[in-house]
Amino acid sequence: MSREQQQVNEAIRAREVRLIDSQGNQVGIKPLREALRLSREADLDLVNVAPQAKPPVCRIMDYGKYRYEQSKREKEARKKQKTIQIKEIRFSPSIEEHDVNTKLRNVKKFLKKGDKVKLTIRFRGREITHQDLGRKILDRMAREVKDLGDVERQPKLEGRHMIMILSPKTSQ
């Protein structure tokens, strides 16, 4: 439950609550007033941790410290997340050998880094009649990087562009 929706102290609207003290021991089902009194005596907050339960479960805790710990955990989880980007590399069907090798190096670099690669061949003018040249280039790329990545989407013509998507191998 997000902390904006968390009910604290007087915001709790139940008559009776299942109370858990600051050490984590179950006190039992208590009237809300008594639970609030116990939390004030301990100089802590009464926090509704399970509002959907019958009766709602409330815990006596330092709410400020709890929120701080929660935000630290969320920040740590975001740090460990890996965002996968899609890098696009464009070709033309009349590309020279040296240029293909340069772009191949970039594709390998992106796959090693864990990014997906979108290979696009743009056909201009009458080049569209030579789709087989574009498919050969994309097939060669897939062959060259088969140890680093898999073909996620086979070469497909969309308008004047032939597109293939490579994703990094999962067993790395």
Automatic annotation (TrEMBL):
Residue stretches making up the Translation initiation factor 3 C-terminal domain: 84-169
Domain annotation Translation initiation factor 3 N-terminal: ranges: 8-77
Subunit and partners: Monomer.
Keywords, comma-separated and alphabetical: Cytoplasm, Initiation factor, Protein biosynthesis
UniProt GO BP: ribosome disassembly
Family: Belongs to the IF-3 family.
PANTHER family: TRANSLATION INITIATION FACTOR IF-3, TRANSLATION INITIATION FACTOR IF-3, MITOCHONDRIAL
InterPro entries associated with the record: T_IF-3_C_sf, T_IF-3_N_sf, Translation_initiation_fac3_CS, Translation_initiation_fac_3, Translation_initiation_fac_3_C, Translation_initiation_fac_3_N
Naturally occurring in which organism (per UniProt): Paludifilum halophilum
SUPFAM superfamilies reported for this sequence: Translation initiation factor IF3, C-terminal domain, Translation initiation factor IF3, N-terminal domain
Any GO MF annotation of the entry: ribosome binding
Protein's job: IF-3 binds to the 30S ribosomal subunit and shifts the equilibrium between 70S ribosomes and their 50S and 30S subunits in favor of the free subunits, thus enhancing the availability of 30S subunits on which protein synthesis initiation begins.
Pfam family, one: IF3_C
The keyword Cytoplasm appears for this protein: yes
The keyword Protein biosynthesis belongs to this UniProt entry's keyword annotation: yes
Protein name, as recorded: Translation initiation factor IF-3
GO cellular component: cytosol; membrane
Location of this chain's protein in the cell: Cytoplasm
